[in-house]
Amino acid sequence: MAETTLPKEMKAQVLEAFNQPYALKTLPIPQLASNDDLLIKVDAASYCHTDAVLASGQMRPNPPSFPHISCHEFAGTIVSLSDSPSPAAKQYRVGQKVGAPGRAYHPCGTCFECLDTTRQDSDYVGYSVYCSNAGNNGISRNGGFSEYAVVDARQVALLPESITPVGAAPLMCAGITIFGALKRCNLSRGQSVGIIGAGGGLGHLGLQFATAMGLKTLGVDAADAPLQLAKSLGTGAEIIDARSQNAEALVQRLGKEADESNIANMGLDAVIVLPEAQSGFDFGMALLKHHGVCVVVSFPEAGFHVSARDLVFRDIRIIGSLVGGNGTLREMLEFAAEHGVKAVSKTFALAELNGLVEEYHKAAGGKLVVDMSV
């Protein structure tokens, strides 16, 4: 089943050292390493905050070597399978379009993570996105800022017909991450959630997912462009400028609107914290009612300061959320297709990746995507 008409070389943007621009190089086409592998022609590759963190040297020992091809959220067209594809790979055929997230390339299948099926987002015995022995596309191994990439058939998902590769690429990290965080809130229709950092890459998708789930949604940001983006989505979520609104006063207003007189029951059922700023974390915690849950997605190098009083006297639970399993990935794609959840994105050619990075640091919100057709 190997494809015989593939070129021998490809263009790729590589990191050659920390804190240096990407360099456009010509490299050999990657080879399949196991019967689980698929070779895809990358159609679109999205830039993530983690790419910036990795490039700055804050995720050592990753990448394990240079040159390194980043990007852990991409989508493309299958061009080759192994001569003896595994059962997982046999589900796919040449020409199909798939989304490729970063995690769980070649999980070991035998560690406690791979054998644990009790978690909410577990897949099946022998496979886990939390396997510490697995490779991570774009982080511990080469990723999607290249014309071709090798992925594990067990980690990808077919794209619904209504979702293009450019639309799918941001969903492979930003989409699955915020969708998984919303699931970890464990809320029912009609309950309330706050999304701190609502105008960013994850946040603006979170507003769309949360409102489509039937949740009363509050979006919070503290910069003009992200706030404008959040408001422009028309989701029906209330958008709050944290620079001009006090969290405690906001809780009082929410309580009054709900005809609630007990301060302990005023506020939100859950918040999701996306920014790395302590002020964002504090704002989110202040919005929670007693027994609420704070889902932390960001991972600032210095961490967050947590008030023990919030944990003890208000019974606030703080949990982290990384991504979601392959089943959750497929669920998210179907949900996005059904409800029209789309990333607001700006596209660049592969050769323009450094310009994309410059645009990213302007923090205008939304997602930035390399479109290989440009």
TrEMBL record:
Family recorded in the similarity comment: Belongs to the zinc-containing alcohol dehydrogenase family.
Cofactor(s) required for function per UniProt: Zn(2+)
Keyword Metal-binding: yes
Highest taxon in the source lineage: Eukaryota
Keywords, sorted A to Z: Metal-binding, NAD, Oxidoreductase, Zinc
Domain Enoyl reductase (ER): start-end pairs: 19-296
Entry protein name: Enoyl reductase (ER) domain-containing protein
Pfam families with a match to the protein in the record: ADH_N (PF08240), ADH_zinc_N (PF00107)
A molecular function (GO) term: alcohol dehydrogenase (NAD+) activity
Database matches in SMART domains: PKS_ER
Keyword NAD appears in the UniProt entry: yes
InterPro entries, A to Z: ADH-like_C, ADH-like_N, ER, GroES-like_sf, NAD(P)-bd_dom_sf
GO cellular component, one term: cytoplasm
Coiled-coil zones: none
